[in-house]
């Protein structure tokens, strides 16, 4: 499968997550039992350790295929690559200027990725550091569980087909009337089922479940996260209409559940910071003349309109019938 072979070559050269694992050197003590030859073709042999290390260089989406149902197919692709490489070495293609340039680029890329991994491993994050970061950004892990009743107005994406369209004032007045009924003891859930234009949540008594910041439109989010459990707020206007919101609870995802994600994000942030510092300390300069984008292409010139004549072209000639009559008149 050619695509797998290309993925192998690209994976070795350009893997961004980790550098390729070099094939293990077979020593004199290696036996057929511990590291058998699994493919042989002419002068080319492939041992199990080399083959398995080659699989590790593949992108994750290919590794599963090459380790499972596609193992034989990948072995054929890998053998094809090895045979082509062996022939290329016989023809001294490794010294071709273009090939040498590509090999140098691949080598630098692998070393760069190894250095990147080394820098990342050197970043130490204690539990205390992560706990402090969690507390500082605790609002990111806050969730609200709420219900709502939506009254849509004309032009709203939630407007129901076949239902009378309300103006904004009418929708707001209806929402205010519903809120008064709830404050008077009416069931929020039952009114959501009969009155809400959000039919999805309406069928569940207005239940929206739990949501985090950034999941709702800004006006709705601000009202819901500001309200106390048990509080009913609104009408709140959004692009969908007017909302009556009942906040049921505020919850915060525990530190233990977000610790790993938090550590990964912070490690990446510190790594990026280190890279920026490295670049800044090197004081790079760029040839701006070379990197300046070219000017946009000039707009095509419009052809000049023809100069209008004093008379339309159709008036410069007399009709054929009139010309004939004139000649007959001259003869007479």
Describe what you observe in this structure.
- This protein is α+β, with helices and mostly antiparallel strands.
- It folds into two domains: 2-121, no CATH class; 137-252, Roll (Chitinase A, domain 3), CATH 3.10.50.40.
- It has 13 helices and six strands.
- Strands 4-3-6-5 form a four-stranded antiparallel β-sheet. A two-stranded antiparallel ribbon has the order 1-2.
- Helix 1 packs across helix 4 and helix 6 crosses helix 11 (255-282).
- The protein is elongated.
- The chain starts with a helix and ends with a helix.
- The model is unreliable at 10-26 and 312-332 (pLDDT under 50).
Order of helices and strands: HEEHHHHHEHHHEHEEHHH
Output the radius of gyration: 37 Å
Strand composition percent: 5-15%
The biggest beta sheet is recorded as: 4 strands, antiparallel
**How many DSSP-defined strands?**
6
How much helix, percentage-wise, in residues? Answer: 40-55%
Backbone structural class: alpha+beta
Total domain count:
2
Read across the widest sheet, the strand sequence of neighbours is 4-3-6-5
> Which regions are unreliable across 5 or more consecutive residues at pLDDT < 50?
10-26, 312-332
Mean pLDDT, all residues: 84
Give the helix tally: 13
Dominant shape = elongated
What is the CA-CA span between the terminal residues? Answer: 97 Å
The quaternary state of the protein chains shown equals single chain
């Amino acid at each position: 499968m050619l695509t797998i072979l290309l993925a192998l070559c690209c994976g070795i050269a350009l893997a961004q997550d980790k550098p390729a694992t070099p094939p293990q050197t077979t020593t004199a003590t290696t036996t057929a039992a511990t590291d058998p030859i699994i493919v042989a073709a002419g002068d080319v042999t492939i041992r199990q350790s080399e083959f398995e290390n080659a699989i590790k260089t593949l992108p994750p989406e290919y590794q599963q295929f090459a380790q499972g149902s596609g193992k034989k197919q990948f072995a054929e692709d890998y053998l094809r690559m090895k045979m082509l490489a062996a022939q290329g070495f016989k023809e001294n293609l490794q010294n071709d200027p273009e090939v040498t340039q590509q090999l140098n680029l691949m080598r630098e890329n692998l070393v760069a990725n190894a250095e990147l991994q080394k820098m990342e491993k050197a970043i130490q994050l204690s539990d205390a550091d992560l706990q402090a970061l969690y507390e500082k950004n605790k609002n990111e892990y806050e969730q609200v569980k709420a219900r709502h009743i939506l009254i849509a107005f004309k032009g709203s994406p939630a407007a129901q087909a076949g239902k009378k369209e309300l103006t904004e004032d009418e929708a707001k007045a209806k929402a205010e009337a519903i809120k008064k009924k709830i404050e008077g003891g009416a069931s929020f859930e039952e009114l959501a089922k009969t009155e809400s234009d959000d039919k999805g949540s309406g069928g569940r008594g207005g239940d929206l479940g739990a949501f985090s910041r950034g999941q709702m439109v800004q006006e709705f989010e601000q009202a819901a996260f500001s309200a106390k459990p048990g509080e009913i707020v609104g009408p709140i206007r959004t692009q969908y209409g007017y909302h009556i919101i009942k906040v049921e609870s505020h919850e915060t995802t525990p530190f233990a559940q977000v610790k790993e994600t938090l550590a990964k994000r912070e490690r990446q942030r510190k790594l990026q910071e280190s890279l920026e510092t490295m670049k800044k300390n090197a004081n790079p300069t760029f040839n701006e003349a070379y990197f300046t984008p070219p000017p946009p292409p000039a707009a095509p010139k419009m052809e000049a309109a023809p100069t209008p004549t004093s008379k339309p072209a159709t008036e410069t000639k007399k009709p054929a019938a009139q010309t004939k009559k004139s000649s007959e008149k001259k003869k007479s």
